[in-house]
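Hi X.,

You mentioned you wanted examples for the new student's onboarding notes, showing what a folding record looks like when two proteins sit in one file. Here is a clean example. The first protein comes first, with its sequence line followed by its structure tokens.
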Amino acid sequence: MTIATVLGQISTAEFLREYWQKKPLLIRQALPDFISPLSPEELAGLACEEDVPARLILESGGDHPWQLKQGPFTEADFTKLPEDGYSLLVTDCDKLIPDLMSIVERFRFVPDWRIDDLMISYAPPGGSVGAHIDEYDVFLLQGMGRRRWMIEYPVIHREFVPGLDIRLLAEFTPTDEWVLEPGDMLYLPPGVPHHGVAIDPCMTFSIGFRAPLWHELTAGVADRLQLCADQSARYTDPALSLQENPGELTAAMRQQLRAGVRALLNADDALLDRLIAETLSERPLDHAAFYPQQEPLSREELIAELQAGEERLMRTPAARLILVESESTYLAHDGATLALTPAMLPLARLLTRAVFFDSAAVLAAIAAPEAADWLVQLYADGVVQWQPRLLP
């Protein structure tokens, strides 16, 4: 797979070795001559729609300093805004406008399951969201106007101002400062304090990466593991003997209970791999609105559309697809796994290797009726869709 680079003169291998999760990197003209595909007015319009995760952060002019307001908003909300001192942020823009995946796919040198979302923010001159840290990797691509970014690296301060709607650092001592213009990009690993201030009316595209908390991943796997276990197995104690204190959990009982729990948790690597893949591919509840509602197509209709070549299929941005090829081969998506037959494997590889699919490649991958029928089902479920032409 060839990925168009956004790393300037640095190779992907060098970036992953020297910078990823290690230290910040400024990349001038990561996307040369970049022009924002959305205007500030279009971003504000998006923030007025239902089911759009939008926020306004008012440094001043609100009911209290650094007030956080949640969308959806109305046109009146924007007419009441002060001239400066605020920021509008819309998350999951890649899922709201699938064509924006043409930007996100450039960052697929990191595995898909780590990519979280594309957030777009707007701020008037002087606007910011204050000095803060993110607990995830982020690429900050300047989309319009100029923004002054300041960072503190190595990290010195991590204390926060109490009593605010948002987490702001109580102290921030910049060690580096840059002015970013459209197409410039700053990479920050988790936990690096940073502060961006708009010089002009500006838009920033933030590509963020999720990293599951170990306890959350373990909880998801454990929930699935207990469903795989023998649901009829029950504790027994036919050799029970009289004990001096009925309220004591004796050593013998503790040993027997530990053995029962360990037997339930004794999953082999293949089962753990599958349950981890299912957990990582699980669809967040609030992502249901990001799946398109499509009229089902028959196998013949779908093939005819592909052969016509007027539209091309793409993976729905909200869909999390994870391919596992091992002793058993399967595709995990939406929290479940589907065992793949040899006839289905070429389609699974295509669906996970690309975001936008060449129609000829799709037709080759569904030559077997079994694979074609599976693609028909994926289309009906909204996992794949026709690429909307919303961007120039």
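Then the second protein repeats the pattern, sequence line and then tokens:
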Amino acid sequence: MATPSKPTPTAKRAASPALMKPLTPSPELAAIVGAEPLPRGQVVSKVWDYIRTHNLQNPANKREILADAALKKVFGRDSCTMFEMNKYLAQHLK
């Protein structure tokens, strides 16, 4: 009986330059993540840090983010889901 061959290791993919490009946050978003240009991934990470620090996840549904005054300026509404968040963040990045 032949033993199954191991899959060949694949090379790690390089990060897309478009995702690593520093983007400037709007004044509303800068109140949360800072004014210096950041790659999109770091912006999302800092927003999540803010959400966790200020306990803004809905306890009954962790996928829902309850906006405080600062996030309401970014989202334009009282709450959004974690999946909608990137759509609102994109509107505040140049």
